[in-house]
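Good day; I would like, with your permission, to put a structural problem before you. What I wish to show you is a protein chain and, alongside it, a tokenised description of its three-dimensional fold. Here, with my thanks, is the record as I have it:
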Amino acid sequence: MRNWPAVGLAVLVCSIPPALAQSPQNSSLPKITANDNRTPAGRLKNGVLELRLDLREGVWYPEDESGGHRNVYVFAEQGRPLQSPGPLIRVPQGTQVHARIRNMLPIAAKVYGFHQHPGDPNEAVSVAPGQSHDVRFTAGGPGTYMYWAATSDHSLDTRDGAETMLSGAFVVDSPGTKPDDRIFVLGLWSKGKIGAGEEIPSINGKSWPYDEHVTYKTGETIHWRVINPTASQHAMHLHGSYFSVDAVGDGDRYERYANDQRRKVVTEMIDEGGVFDMTWTPERAGNWLFHCHMVVHMSPPAALHPPATEPASYSPGHDHGAMMGGLVIGITVFPNPSSEPAPIAANATRKLQLVISENPERIPLYKLEVKDLAAPTPTPPASGTNPPPSLLGPPIVLTRGETTEIEVKNQTSQPTSIHWHGIELESYYDGVAGWTGTAQRTSPAIAPGGSFIARMTPPRAGTFIYHTHWHDASQILNGLYGPLIVLEPGQKYDPEQDQTFVFSIGKYAPFGFLLLINGNPQPDPITLNVGTRYRLRLINITDDLVDMRVRLTSNDAPVQWKVVAKDGADLPPAQLKTSTADMWLTVGETYDVEYQAAGPMLAKLEVWEVSSPTPAAIPLNFVASK
């Protein structure tokens, strides 16, 4: 969640005084090292893990050691360097855990997670300053868990300042299995109210681009465990490939899905205190990303980068991790020599243009047009009849298996880049300037007056998004995005049965920043027919609305609908079922649902977020067909 309204990274950056960029350092405190969660802590022998942990204070450098830092509390093995996140606890099921926890902080602490799993999440060990506490328990069911601590009786989601980094991974393996995964612990140092105070995000103790960059080969099966001991939800998005969600948990309880219940996604929301396990297989070589889709969490932390240390404008010679920061993992995939070579790209059978220009009225800042170069040139509208620029780009409609070139023409005064969210394409065309592609051929920024041709052959039909991946929040808050619909060969886009709803945040004159549906805070009613099965395509491309909800109601009660696709991928038959029309839709997610009204009625599609004072809704009037 975040404080409302979001006014974008540019305002957040400008609001941080330079004095806050560097906390005073106590030179007597030890430095904290980043923990890559590869080496388990303690001594495991004859089915018993002997573990000695300290709670200590140290100096944390989320980037490099010449940059900003914070004095924080962390866990450490006794006699070893301090670590963020805390030392990895990893044992086989049935292991006897004998742990001594020593508190070397100046205040008392409560330590959670040192018990058999599943267990009571409220069970805690209280340790006074300078004291130790012994705990003994049997490691429970296999799964991904966490341990954490707080001072001053704070809960996980109310920790503040130094205590926000007191957490670590706890993994229980099935007997006889050999670990073949990676563990990524999300971090969020925060001071003050989440979304309104200072925040420094990290993964395994470092912020992009100073965190670990991982490498794989095409065709390799990859298993990850993602753990979120922070006070914020996150929307974790993978570029270039789908992943299956194999298991989920809340840090104390863990559920592993049956094979036919594992959803295939490109974006997954992880709750405060939540975990999920994922599997994916890269099919295309190049550089890719795994990151939180909240703009504030994938941008250089304002608390570390006040205006005085940031360049006035982008230039090709300057790069701060592709203008990103925070919760981002860089992935490089190399060709596998044993794999078949990639097929030679076919000539494009379709050519489009996405033209981005500036709006003279300045609200919104941009105007987007899509042109089909093979279609007849439309007759220009009569003078004075041009529709005003919208906080939503027009739909781009493609066909599965049809090679298409989209030329992005930047007629604005600012650089940009466009990401084809969810589309499986070659890395060079993915749209992250300065990162995607390869070391020899990296995706460029689209300079003012310049253009870039993105090439793709969509392998599946579904609902996707095109949006700016330029890390200036003013672009995503001014309509530089739109729906990207891929149809089956021979299928025509029929708005009579196919309704797309894009949810976003924008500056809507004269009211300021509002929650929008298809570019409007109060869209006009839509008339639909009784007895017609409609496909409703739902898209969240807000800046930071990670906990947005969508529901379809009649007489103020949710109706029943059927979810048929997630992130552009059709759900398998075992997951198709009718459900209550009330669901989470995190930023960067798309869902396709089907709904058919049995009789005339007035329905309402509503979207809201807890911290938003102004929900948005669009009336749907179902009438008997003539």
About this structure: The helical segments are 9-14, 473-476.
